[in-house]
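Support request from a user on the community tier.

User writes: "When I paste my structure tokens into the form, the page sometimes reloads and wipes my input. The last time it worked, I copied everything first. Here is what I submitted, just in case something in the input itself triggers the reload:"
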């Protein structure tokens, strides 16, 4: 967290060194590389448009505090690339990260949205390797903090979806999904009696799932519409997708057969004409049916593609057969040159527990917070994001990442 504060402080202190602009001329956009150049008494880099075949890279420290991870240290890199004609091709984005936490969690991930020339093909990826732990709770949004019992496990995920453009901004395609939770065992200091009473064990026994390893694997189909001007930091447009996933028992070691429908919608509403202020809205739902998902594959907070939902809560804090999530975020700039910005957000999660008769909207977990932004790369609009989130029952988290939450 100290590194993030220092980075923002350096950026702010360097603003006075920027070139003065005439009152009737918009100030030149600056990013952190420009600040570094100004400190060295060099001119800012020119704001040239992104060219076909060009790649832009940014790297930042990952330092944060999450209830599920403790204090995290690591690094994240963003690669933005333009694979075709800028007039017909959107910028692709890949985020690669690695971190280690004070709770002895190690995580490696590579996630991307990649578009080929003229947006003919769109590839979505979410791939993770984690040697980690997570507190387990009862299902539903009404689960109690005192129910937490720590579980350790290894987690490997491969989610790949390939979509073909069927008309401008509209795609359809299919994918493969593999989630493997193995070497599942009680966390340090957890006694056998407490472990056997956990929601993980109770749920798994009711649904005849193994306790040491649980796998979900199967194909998916999806349709997606995207009119955003950027997937990294949208100023305007909207995004919507609907997908169906069929997980098959025995396929790639699948522990059970079940099905999932995922719905996701996002919109970005500019305030004014200068792209300085906007409202971003995110709604999504995950609905399982026709089978019994493994406990750790049930819809849960923080388990979206980039792990950015539910700021204020740890991964897996709320889990159930069905989940709906909503968030609204106000985004604004702090400096005329766009170098620094800030956000404020509100979110809410509702999760079912059908075994106990709890349905969606019977209870909810609200979250709220605010954050700072520093522009790492002005050409790809990549921000360094520093957020603080709060939830109910004293839950809170500090997050440092590259690329907007949604």
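"...and here is what came back when it finally went through:"
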């Amino acid at each position: 967290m100290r590194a993030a504060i220092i980075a923002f402080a350096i950026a702010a202190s360097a603003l006075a060194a920027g070139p003065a602009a005439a009152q009737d001329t918009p100030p030149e956009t600056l990013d952190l590389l420009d600040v570094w150049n100004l400190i060295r008494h060099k001119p800012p880099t020119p704001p040239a448009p992104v060219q076909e075949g060009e790649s832009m890279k940014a790297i930042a420290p990952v330092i944060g505090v999450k209830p599920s991870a403790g204090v995290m240290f690591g690094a994240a890199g963003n690669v933005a690339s333009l694979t075709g004609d800028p007039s017909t091709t959107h910028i692709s984005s890949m985020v690669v990260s690695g971190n280690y936490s004070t709770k002895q969690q190690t995580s490696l991930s590579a996630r991307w949205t990649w578009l080929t020339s003229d947006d003919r093909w769109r590839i979505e990826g979410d791939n993770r390797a984690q040697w980690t732990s997570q507190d387990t709770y009862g299902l539903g949004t009404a689960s109690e903090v005192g129910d937490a019992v720590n579980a350790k496990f290894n987690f490997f995920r491969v989610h790949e979806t390939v979509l073909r453009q069927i008309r401008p901004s509209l795609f359809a395609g299919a994918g493969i999904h593999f989630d493997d939770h193995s070497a599942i065992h009680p966390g340090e200091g957890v006694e056998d009696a407490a472990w056997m009473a956990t929601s993980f064990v109770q749920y798994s026994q009711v649904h005849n799932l193994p306790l040491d390893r649980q796998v979900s694997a199967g194909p998916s189909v999806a349709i997606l519409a995207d009119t955003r001007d950027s997937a990294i930091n949208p100023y305007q447009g909207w995004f919507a997708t609907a997908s169906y996933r069929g997980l098959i028992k025995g396929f790639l070691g699948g522990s059970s057969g079940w099905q999932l429908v995922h719905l996701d919608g996002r919109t970005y509403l500019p305030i004014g004409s200068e792209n300085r202020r906007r409202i971003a809205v995110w709604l999504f739902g995950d609905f399982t049916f026709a089978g019994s998902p493994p406990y750790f594959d049930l819809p849960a907070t923080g388990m979206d593609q980039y792990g950015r939902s539910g700021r204020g809560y740890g991964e897996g804090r709320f889990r159930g057969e069905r989940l709906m999530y909503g968030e609204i975020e106000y985004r604004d700039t702090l400096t005329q040159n766009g170098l620094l910005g800030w956000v404020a957000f509100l979110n809410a999660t509702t999760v079912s527990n059908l075994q106990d008769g709890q349905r969606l909207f019977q209870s909810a977990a609200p979250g709220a917070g605010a954050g700072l932004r520093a522009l790492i790369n002005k050409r790809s609009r990549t921000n360094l994001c520093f957020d603080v989130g709060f939830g109910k029952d004293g839950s809170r988290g500090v997050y440092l990442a590259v690329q907007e939450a949604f």
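Agent notes: The reload is a front-end session timeout and is unrelated to the input. The CA atoms of residues 91 and 230 lie 7 Å apart. The helical segments are 2-13, 32-39, 192-196, 199-206. Escalated to web team.
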